[in-house]
Amino acid sequence: MKTIIEPFRIKSVEPIRMTTREERERLLKEAGYNLFKLHSDDVLIDLLTDSGTSAMSAAQWGAVMTGDESYAGAPSFYRFEAAVRDLMDFKHIIPAHQGRAAEHLLFSLIAKPGLVIPSNTHFDTTRGNIEAAGAEALDLPIAEGKIPSLDHPFKGNMDLAELERLMAERGEDVPCVMMTITNNAGGGQPVSLENIRGAAEIAHAHGKPFFIDGCRFAENAWFIKLRENGQQDRSIKEIVRDTFRVSDGMTMSAKKDAFANIGGWLALNDDSLAEQARTRLIQTEGFPTYGGLAGRDLDAIAQGLTEIVDEDYLRYRVRTNAYIAERLDEMGVPVMKPAGGHAVFVDAREWLSHIPPLEYPGHALACALYEEGGIRGCEIGTVMFGRKPDGSEEPARMDLVRLAMPRRVYTQSHADYIVEVFEELAARKDDIRGLKIVKEPPMMRHFTAEFEPL
Length: 454
Ligand code: F0G
Hints:
Aspartate Aminotransferase, domain 2; 454 residues; Beta-eliminating_lyase; Aspartate Aminotransferase, domain 1; 16 helices; alpha/beta
């Protein structure tokens, strides 16, 4: 069979409220041309993020009902711990309310001024937590990872020669080496098992721990199975276990590859670090057997982890993005290649080359997608990264629009609709105008800034 169908039936639905173009133009204007300020029921297809937006399964909703809300020692925690350990065999598994809380726990303990933490590419919140502790967050992606149009099987890989050089020159300033799988900020691109092992080896040779930000570990494992030599006959679970076997701990957002709407964890092998993390957890998140979550959330995660490693699901998941990216590519829309695991990234700076970077081509495209078709994506470019700490403004390295796919939420006809909206835009793309910022906060401006079209 040629068609890869959604490997599920839909038992419970959420209606989409239809809107007209005129309505959307008004709503976007009222929102100060900031898509974060829209009410989500004014959005037809919401591709703002794949985080916390998954459709839970009937089995997960069933598990929610078995959640035990005891303050300490709830069976829900032990089910959660066993489900994590089945995939990632760490000694200490510490729940947290989401990924960034786990990052905060870790980096508030190991990051300090004068230290540097390398990664293939840190996600924003990881960077934020490292910098908040006074340390430097250093990205060392491979050169291929920086060129959107270039095809490469493991574009999320870390540049191991650069890592080796950093460790040789400044090893004593490096408290740990991180790896983000998949590489979200680098386009949802996978990291090979070989690269993960190589980075771990370098860290360990210098006596440093190696940690994985594992948010999209199952998508990464699927790419390894498809693309890495010798992995084709192995199960996703085996690949996942191999991935984490070489690491000393992980941070996780269960809002991604655990099909949960909230949750996360920090896992560690080091007893003393785990004890310090648990003490801090009690101070900031909650007792170590719930970590800021309800027992029912822990059960939803435990069940979700058994479902995420299903190959039929992963095949459909990754194919949806590839399908959209291929149609856009055929149409001449420049997309990040190959398609990532959780999102399609469009190179707006190239497609809307008549809009200079400081007039925000990525943001202009995101606004046009909403006005044209009610699609909400997210600019990853100059609006997000252009304002420097000294107050100056510079173009970001790229101006991309990320269309992130919620898990198990949209169907093939939604994918076709997204392609059609791009077809409409392609016909009049030279009329899409840039924007100027009329109001912005001192930092993280993309969430709250207000704009006017030029
Ligand atoms: N690490 C990565 C790679 C992420 O993509 C995210 C979240 C986090 C950590 C933080 O997890 O949201 O549970 O606190 N990414 C979302 C996104 C927000 O839209 O890409 P969190």
